[in-house]
Design a protein that fits this description.
The structure holds two protein chains of two kinds. Chain A contains four helices and seven strands; from the N terminus they run αβαβαβαββββ. Chain A is α/β, with parallel strands linked by helices. By secondary structure, chain B is α/β, with parallel strands linked by helices. Chain B starts with 25 loop residues before the first helix and ends with a helix. The chains are: A alpha/beta, B alpha/beta. At the A-B interface, α3 of A face α1 of B.
Chain lengths: 176, 320
Amino acid sequence: MLELDAESLYSQLRQGVRGLLADGTRPDAALVGIWSGGAWLAERLQRDLGLPGGDTGYGVISSTLHRDDFSSRGLVIQDGKGTDPTQLPFAIEGRHIVLVDDVLHTGRTIRAVVNELYDFGRPASVTLAVLVDRGGRELPIAAAFAAAKLALPAGQRLRLARADDGRFSFTVKGSD
Amino acid sequence: MLMRRNPQLNAHGELIHLLSIEGLPRAVLTQILDTAGTFLSVNDRDVKKVPLLRGKSVFNLFFENSTRTRTTFEIAAKRLSADVINLDIARSSTAKGESLLDTIANLSAMHADMFIVRHAESGAPYLIAQHVAPHVHVINAGDGRHAHPTQGLLDMYTIRHYKRDFTQLTVAIVGDIVHSRVARSDIHALTTLGVPEIRAVGPKTLVPGDLAGMGVRVCHDMAEGIRGADVIIMLRLQNERMSGAMLPSAGEFFKSYGLTPEKLALAKSDAIVMHPGPINRGVEIDSAVADGAHSVILPQVTFGIAVRMAVMSTIAGNQA
């Protein structure tokens, strides 16, 4: 059974993102978390790193409207509250964007999310940071930082969960 | 006993056509309203377009005129990246004697993926839905006196937007209910969503007797009908559908059932006033009300685009 300590991986991600923001190539970069796991990460990174804009200075983005499996899966609305999960409280045009997600797998979600981002403007650059890169890429997409790299069987699903006290954990579902 | 399946739903209970709100479960209605909430903000983006229906052909088949409804469907389809073909049926082959199903067969041969149908005959969209290929979807944009489900859904979206919870509301529908497919769709939707009090308000000639059987309180007195209401839905007086003397005169109607600021004062202080449009000022609604603080008539139009995007993308994503 696979054991992943999400909290210790988060600490590494925090260091990694701090490095990406400080390396001088992305002045005034903004964090954008991919709904839903990545949004939790962005929320906590924003706070822990004390980034400009305060606790609400990060963005959230959803892949729903740009998914490539619409014709087979139909429309899957990701939250039941009747609002758009994509919330970008700053202009995308000309901005350096650091995308944050929990798990990088086929790369299809990242493709959809980059398209979604462009509906709001043309960013100066887009960089990806993830907790876990599980391999299995189906598109030419790579993370600039991954706290862990491992190979999981295609049938297994790895998902980030957040407890009421804000602590992260990973759940693994499905056959190997 | 074998239950006949609702022709709008597939074997998994997913929506594949939208023909009527009648018989649709609450979960399906709520899902469309939630989806519409997601689409509402697309209209505020730099790029007001998402690719869900890219490469699909949507045919607007309006056998009866309606500039507004046709336009909002066209905008909704275009914001989903579909190709939209508007057919001016009144001036085309139907006028030359082609049957409805022959028209559909020909358009299907042009690889239509979705038909938006408005027709003066109740049931025409059902007939079309029964005869299209499994991958083709049909939306009823108003059939006779029967149903106008997307208007019903956008009315529900509007009510939910301003009032949040359906289960505490009193909703008054006022005016020409006998000719109104909007009223029928609204009543079915309000009932399904759990509204405890629905009132149908109007003169005996325009408020049909079978409404009490739909769980609606019939009021022939305007004051009684709108007293304490949270939501007032005014209907257009449909002179073009009236035959004979159903009404003394438009002026007489306004005196009894027109919504004026004085009558509106009988409703709750935070009541909203809705109207499916086009409005007849001074016939069913006073200008001071139509343009007043309680009016949400123009937001209804905006919400209508998001709701139609939600309906199209929901049915297009489900397989027969």
